[in-house]
Structures are given as structure tokens and as C-alpha cells.
Amino acid sequence: MSHVDELARQIVVLHREDGFLRLELPAVLCLPANVAVIESGLAQVPGVASAAVDTGWRRISVRYAADRLTAGQVARALFALLEKLPEPEMQVANVPQVTPSVQVDGATPGLQPLLDKLKAMLQPATPPAEGSLQARFQPLVESALTEKAILNFFNDIVAFYLIRVHWDLITKRWLQNPVAHSNAWLTVFYLVFLLVRYRKT
């Protein structure tokens, strides 16, 4: 097996949808000279709108015209570029350790890379038949496996836990004498306000 074939086998699909493809790259492909070749090479492929390598998370995100290209064609274009990489940069040895890079908005990604990997494992290799149970279930998986959905779920768990722990106080004291326990009600209203405000953002 050639070195190019070995690198191609290490590329993993993280997320795939119409017009978008995210792949995990081996560390050697995230070296500066290789990144320049990959990004410029994919940008020249007709139908590719953008190609950006995140060297921190070792992944590439490609946006393309779904009516002109398929995810498979984008992947094959990337594989073809592996043969054009500079020879010195193709050596796997002495690859520097990288840390997660800062995103455009100034925040490092949290759970989403792991959720993308999980979605990639759950996503079928071929599109399910239209109208099948799997086709109906797939959008639910896509919407549930997002960082915001996971955080909302755990926020709800914490809220229900707090209600359960304080249930006796709520029913036997706070409701019977709300004025005397106004500080507790103010805390409740403020926490509800924060929860609702977060879910709307």
C-alpha cells in the first residue's frame, strides 16, 4: 500500500449533508504546506464554494453546490490532491502536536466534534428509501445530536431535579405563605427567566 493510499484510509467522514462535507484528517495533512495545497486545490474544483482546514481539530469543512457535485466526488477530489503534496511534508514522523484552534466567533468548539462523529456512525452509507422508517428517523437524529439540544436536555434534567428536591417546600411553605418566602420565589422566577432566555438564543 502506497503512502498516499494509507493517508486516504485515515480520512474519516464526520458529517455529511447536501452541499456540506466535514472530514477528519490525519495529522500530517494539517501541516501548513499540505493545508495550502488542499485548500487551494479544492477551491479550484468546479462546484466547490469553500474549503477550510481546521488544524486544531484536524478536520476540513467543504461547502459545495449539491446540484453539481456529490460528497463522493468531493472526497475523490481530495484524494487526488494527496499525490500533489510536497514530499518533505508527507513524512509522518515529527508531526507537531496541535491544539484546538479558535473559531471565528472566539470560542473553541465543545461537544460538537464528538457529536459529529456519532452522527457519522449512525448515518447510513446510502440514503434510506423515501417514506421508510429510517428516512423519518434520520432528521430526528440530526436535530437531537447537536450541542444545543444536548445542553437543553441537561438543563431540563437539572430543572426537574431542583423541583423534585424542593417540592415539599414549594407545596407546604412557599405556596401557603408566598410573601414570607418572597426571596425564594424571586430566585425561582430568575432561574426560569435564565432558562427561557437561553433556549430562545
Quick recap:
This protein is of the alpha+beta class.
- Based on CA atoms alone, the radius of gyration comes out at 24 Å
CATH topology description of the largest domain = Alpha-Beta Plaits
What does the oligomeric state look like here?
single chain
Number of domains: 2
**Strand order, largest beta sheet:** 1-2-4-3
CATH architecture of the largest domain: 2-Layer Sandwich
Helical content stands at 40-55%
Distance between the termini: 50 Å
The largest sheet, given as strand count, sense and whether it forms a barrel, is:
4 strands, antiparallel
CATH class of the largest domain: Alpha Beta
Task: Write a structural description.
- With 201 residues, this protein is α+β, with helices and mostly antiparallel strands.
- It folds into 2 domains: 3-109, Alpha-Beta Plaits; 147-200.
- The chain has 8 helices and 4 strands, in the order αββαββαααααα.
- It has helices at 3-9, 32-43, 71-82, 112-122, 133-144, 147-165, 167-174, 182-200, and strands at 12-17, 20-24, 48-54, 59-64.
- Strands 1-2-4-3 form a 4-stranded antiparallel beta sheet.
- Helix 2 (32-43) packs across helix 3.
- The longest helix has 19 residues, at 147-165.
- The radius of gyration is 24 Å and the shape is elongated.
- Mean pLDDT is 79; it is low at 88-108.
